[in-house]
């Protein structure tokens, strides 16, 4: 298959179109504006609907409406814009509506910077909205994975009737990489017989709602959602291990830092240091069991968590999974500064020295 | 072939669809001319992309003697379509060689329209960079449509085509040849000559049979893990 050179953001949009996205609602924000730009040109060519909404809040609520009528709907934004969408996301989760949300992360807090960052891990995995809800969060680390995951995300959303997020840092959205349009796994999906798409021959109206006035009914609704989240945890967790079989030092990283770590591994291994990479691909559900088991291995002496965040966010999940079995150090930058290969090598050596 | 023989006009304006590799070509061209003893000024006029702009390579360029002109420091990481006033130095000082690195598409080329009356008084060439692996310019029809769009926006005529077909780290000589074929068709249909083929140094020897010169480059716009 002839490879093509695609920019991350336009590839996200094209992937969504190929996955049968019917409607896109969004508002421009750097570094993801090529997604709506590409959608505005190409989605209508495929019979879809593109709307540049008046705000991010409007966009996510348009997604709610379209998803409620059974359409495949998507929105995309970058960090501050995703913050604005949080209320809509919890409503979508509460009303059990499938949709795909792209976050092309930039530096924060607040307006921050337009340069790449990973400061929205907590927001994506803990839910920035209210109530007990979860969204599957896919975190690609290159453009090929991004186009594959965006296509799969629509199926995952439909299978569970739940929002799915694809989070990539701004670098993935902005960079050019060769990709191929190979087939992605398709799922057997249930019919959308719940959709408010006209009563027709049905004996009842379908109602899309997240309001349950009766506390007992609301409690039962939450139990039902919890069962669904347990299913997602069982079925959807993904991760990758690189050279972990004999690793003494394991780097935990996702997205672009995981990519940088691969180069660091080459140098570390060449210097006789047994280093490996544990890369969560789903941030929720987090690959807790796999990381716990890796931490239990005798050859593993220490972990180094690397993120594009000043304080570290995923490191909390790493700590929960490692459960104190081995020490964890941290390397991170925020605000658009990326950890370098050299820094990773130094931090890895230091982390290992401390336990030896 | 020397870079100043290849780009013999005083000012080279680098345009094209975004992602075709204009910045990589611009930076390499500036460095090659500086190495030949020319006084070179490179203007980063990319108002489209927030990342991967030539201003990111300012220390390397200045160490090589290339003067980089870009938006003020305050705007260098912003998505503000601000243009550097110093650009006029390139247009007015006939003792310097100027390279203008323009953002992608007719949208990015809009920055040139304002300077069109000055540019046409100078010895310039407007270069259209092609990459046959970019899906929106891989057919002669679409490539020509973008070319005409850039001409219409800028009020300038395109005078040269540069084949910069690549696949980042996965580039092969065959890819470059495929791009050469596309550039040749575009050239025949528009009457605009193919100036050169851009290739990493490792490919230069195997491409010596191409009709036009091969401009050797080394990758300067690297990703953080490269």
Structure description:
The complex is a heterodimer of chains A (356) and B (226). Chain A is an alpha/beta fold and 356 residues long. In chain A, 42% of the residues lie in helices and 19% in strands. In chain B, strand 2 (40-45), helix 3 and strand 3 form a beta-alpha-beta unit. Chain B starts with a helix and ends in a 9-residue tail after the last strand. The relative contact order of chain B is 0.18. The mean pLDDT of chain B is 93. The chains are: A alpha/beta (356), B alpha/beta (226). Chain A binds chain B through residues 3-7, 30-31, 113-116, 170-171, 174-178, 256, 259-260, 262-263, 336, 338, 340-341, and chain B through 18-19, 49-52, 77-79, 131, 133-135, 138, 166-168, 170, 223-226.
Strand order of the largest sheet of chain A: 3-2-4-5-7-6-12
Fill in the CATH topology of the largest domain in chain A.
Answer: Rossmann fold
Residue stretches of chain A low in confidence (pLDDT < 50, at least 5 long) are: none
Question: What is the CATH T-level topology of chain B?
Answer: Rossmann fold
Number of strands of chain A: 14
Overall shape of chain A: globular
Largest sheet of chain A: 7 strands, mixed
């Amino acid at each position: 298959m002839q490879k093509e050179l695609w920019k991350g953001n336009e590839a996200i949009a094209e992937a969504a179109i190929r996955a049968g996205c019917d409607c896109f609602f969004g508002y421009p924000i750097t570094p993801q504006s090529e997604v709506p730009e590409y959608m505005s040109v190409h989605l209508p060519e495929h019979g879809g609907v593109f709307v540049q909404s008046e705000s991010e809040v409007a966009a996510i609520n348009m997604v709610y409406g379209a998803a409620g009528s059974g359409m495949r709907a998507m929105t995309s934004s970058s960090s501050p814009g995703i913050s604005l969408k949080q209320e809509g996301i919890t409503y979508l989760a509460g009303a059990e509506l499938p949709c795909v949300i792209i976050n092309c992360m930039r530096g924060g807090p607040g307006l921050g910077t337009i340069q790449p960052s990973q400061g929205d891990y907590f927001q994506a995995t803990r839910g920035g909205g209210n109530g007990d809800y979860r969204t599957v969060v896919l975190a690609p680390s290159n453009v090929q994975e991004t186009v594959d995951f965006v296509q799969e995300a629509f199926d995952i959303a439909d299978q569970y009737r739940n929002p799915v997020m694809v989070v990539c840092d701004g670098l993935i959205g902005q960079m050019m990489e060769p990709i191929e349009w190979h087939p992605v796994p398709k799922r057997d999906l249930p019919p959308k017989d719940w959709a408010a798409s006209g009563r027709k021959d049905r004996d009842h109206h379908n109602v899309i709602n997240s309001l349950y006035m009766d506390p007992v009914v609301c409690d039962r609704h939450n139990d039902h959602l919890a069962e669904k989240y347990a299913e997602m945890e069982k079925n959807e967790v993904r991760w990758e291990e690189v050279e972990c079989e004999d690793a003494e030092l394991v780097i935990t990283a996702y997205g672009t830092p995981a990519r940088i770590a691969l180069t660091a591994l080459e140098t570390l291994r060449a210097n006789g240091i047994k280093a490996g990479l544990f890369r969560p691909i789903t941030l929720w559900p987090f690959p807790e069991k796999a990381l716990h088991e890796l931490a239990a291995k005798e050859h593993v002496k220490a972990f180094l968590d690397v993120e594009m965040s000043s304080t570290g966010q995923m490191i909390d999940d790493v700590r929960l999974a490692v459960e104190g079995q081995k020490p964890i150090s941290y390397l991170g930058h925020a605000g658009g500064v990326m950890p370098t290969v050299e820094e990773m090598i130094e931090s890895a050596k230091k982390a290992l020295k401390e336990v030896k | 072939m020397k870079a100043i023989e290849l780009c013999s006009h005083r000012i080279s304006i680098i345009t094209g669809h975004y992602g075709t590799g204009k910045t990589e070509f611009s930076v390499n061209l500036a460095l090659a001319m500086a190495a030949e003893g020319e006084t070179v000024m490179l203007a980063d006029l990319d108002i489209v992309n927030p990342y991967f702009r030539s201003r990111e390579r300012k220390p390397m360029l200045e160490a090589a003697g290339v003067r980089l002109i870009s938006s003020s420091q305050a705007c260098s990481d912003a998505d503000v379509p601000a243009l550097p006033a110093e650009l006029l130095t390139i247009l007015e000082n006939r003792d310097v060689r100027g390279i203008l690195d323009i953002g992608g598409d007719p949208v990015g080329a809009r920055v040139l329209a304002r300077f069109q009356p000055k540019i046409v008084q100078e010895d310039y060439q407007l270069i259209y960079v092609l990459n046959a692996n970019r899906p929106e310019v891989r057919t002669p029809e679409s490539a020509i449509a973008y070319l005409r769009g850039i001409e219409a926006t800028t009020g300038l005529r395109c005078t040269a085509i540069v084949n910069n077909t690549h696949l980042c780290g996965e580039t092969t000589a065959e890819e470059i040849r495929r791009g050469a074929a596309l550039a040749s068709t575009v050239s025949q249909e528009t009457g605009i000559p193919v100036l050169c083929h851009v290739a990493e140094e490792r490919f230069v020897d195997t491409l010596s049979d191409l009709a036009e010169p091969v401009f050797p480059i080394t990758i300067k716009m690297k990703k953080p893990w490269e």
